[in-house]
Amino acid sequence: MAKSSDGAIWGIHGGKHSEADDLFLKHKVIALGWDEMGDLRALGATRDAFKAKIASTYPADKAASIPVNAGQVFRFVHEIKVGDLVVYPSKRDRNVHIGEITGAYRYDPSGQHEFPNRRAVKWLKALPRTAFSQGALYEIGSALSFFQVKNFADEFRAALEGKSPGPVTGDTTASLVAEEIEQVTRDFVLRKLAQELKGHPFAEFVAHLLGAMGYRCRVSAEGPDGGVDILAHKDELGFEPPIIKVQVKSTEGSVGDPVVSALYGKVEKSEFGLLVTLGTITAQARAFSRAKSNLRLIDGEELVDLVLDHYEQFDSKYKGLIPLKRVYVPAPLEEPSE
Q1: Which of 12, 244, 263, 268 has the alpha carbon at shortest distance from 115?
Q2: 277 assigned to some structural domain
Q3: Among 20, 208, 209, 233, which Cα is nearest to 114's?
Q4: Considering the domain boundaries, does residue 1 fall inside one?
Q5: Is 88 helix (H, G, I), strand (E, B) or coil?
Q6: 198 and 83 in one domain?
Q7: Most buried pick, 15, 40, 268, 337, via CB within 10 A?
Q8: Total-model pTM
Q9: Are 154 and 197 members of one domain?
């Protein structure tokens, strides 16, 4: 066995659905695809040579993906050393397999020809995913097929030696992962709204959102609207107060005091004013609204909150526009009270 404190630790995936699982575990190898490139020993031992080969072999690939893919293959061929450790999280048996690299790169299209770039490995230990911290699992869940494990390398070395990583309650990475997922979702919602619902369609969306919140809405016809895009009310006919006059802004810029003041100038004492924007609201506009009990301003961030709160009540049109899936993520860890 390689000394656990020496050498690099690499992570590898066996395909989107662990298609290479049998190849890895039964034939004691790790392998990469990119089979159309042929034997990679024929290339020069430089990243530029690998980039050029990737570009010529896969001309439809996006330019940004070329150095990423070339880097993975180059490292597999030229940077792995015999004695390095490798971590393979199998989706089939739900175990994390840790092994030692025992052979140099070879091109072998036999068996599963789509994974011809191979290295021999001696599997040393298989552990359930529950044996590792969330941070370690997150690192080996990389979007890349082949990568170096750095942040939690010591945890995998310790696992190989039979040591525990410690209690999960001490792992703050779970909270960081949850925060990242939440931010990615929020960015996605705002981006879809900004790209797909410019102008009048955004007013229709806001009216739909207000409908999900229990209001009945009338959207102004497309064109000049006099500064009021939506009339919202609770009763069926729209006679009973309160009447809400809504102005929407589908731009991602900042909405200032002049726009807010103009909207409020159209609001009677018995009515309410509501401004909804995909962008931000200036401090001056906020200060103006705080002095008006019947005026409410909603910026892009708060709009996303409302979308997430009422998403289940959306119709298929808007669920199709903003496809979201309910997932459960670890809750932030609470600091122990003294």
Answers
A1: 12
A2: yes
A3: 20
A4: no
A5: strand
A6: no
A7: 40
A8: 0.60
A9: no
Identify the CATH number of the domain in which residue 210 sits. 3.40.1350.10
Closest CA relative to residue 25, chosen from 131, 132, 120: 120
Nearby residues of 151 by Cβ (< 8 Å), 6 or more positions away = 135, 139
d(CA 123, CA 139): 20
Cis peptide before 258 (omega within 30 of 0): no
> How many domains does the chain divide into?
2
147 and 43 assigned to the same domain: yes
Q: Per DSSP, which regions of the chain are E strands?
A: 9-12, 29-32, 85-89, 95-101, 106-107, 117-128, 146-149, 216-219, 230-233, 243-249, 254-255, 271-277, 280-281, 295-298
My answer on whether 157 and 198 are in the same domain is no
Residue 3 is assigned to a structural domain of this protein: no
Token reading at 100: 């030692």
**Cα dihedral angle (65, 67, 73, 75), rounded to 10 degrees?**
-140
**Domain shared by 298 and 266, yes or no:** yes
For 307, other C-beta atoms within 10 Å of its C-beta total 21
The C-alpha atoms of residue 141 and residue 145 are separated, in whole angstroms, by 9
On whether residue 263 sits in a domain, the answer given is yes
Domain of residue 46, CATH code = 3.10.590
Local structure of 11: helix, strand or coil:
strand
Q: What is the pLDDT along the chain (338 residues), one digit of tens a residue?
A: 444 456 899 999 998 888 999 999 999 999 999 999 999 999 989 999 999 999 999 999 899 999 999 999 999 999 999 999 999 999 888 899 999 999 999 999 988 889 999 999 999 999 998 889 888 888 998 889 999 999 999 999 999 998 865 554 445 566 666 777 888 899 999 999 999 999 999 999 999 999 999 999 999 988 765 679 999 998 777 667 789 999 999 988 899 999 999 999 999 988 999 999 999 999 999 999 999 999 999 999 999 999 999 999 999 999 999 999 988 776 665 555 55
Full residue range of the structural domain in which residue 290 is found: 188-321
